[in-house]
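Morning run. Coffee first, then this:
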Amino acid sequence: MPLFKQFGPLELVLVIVLALIIFGPGRVARLGAELGKGIRGFKEGLQPNKPKENTDTTDSENASNEA
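And here it is:
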């Protein structure tokens, strides 16, 4: 017998309402954003090393574009 059953829609709504009551809407939004950043960083860490896109322009590129 599993310790936890699957969550249904009613249980999910109950958890969200309790989180809003305990933490407040502003803090819940920040926690969600930080959780998303953490998961994204974890996934990027699992990927093999790949070259990163260089979006920064160097001074030499800026000088050649202005001339």
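Residues 59 and 65 are 10 Å apart (CA to CA). Good start to the day.
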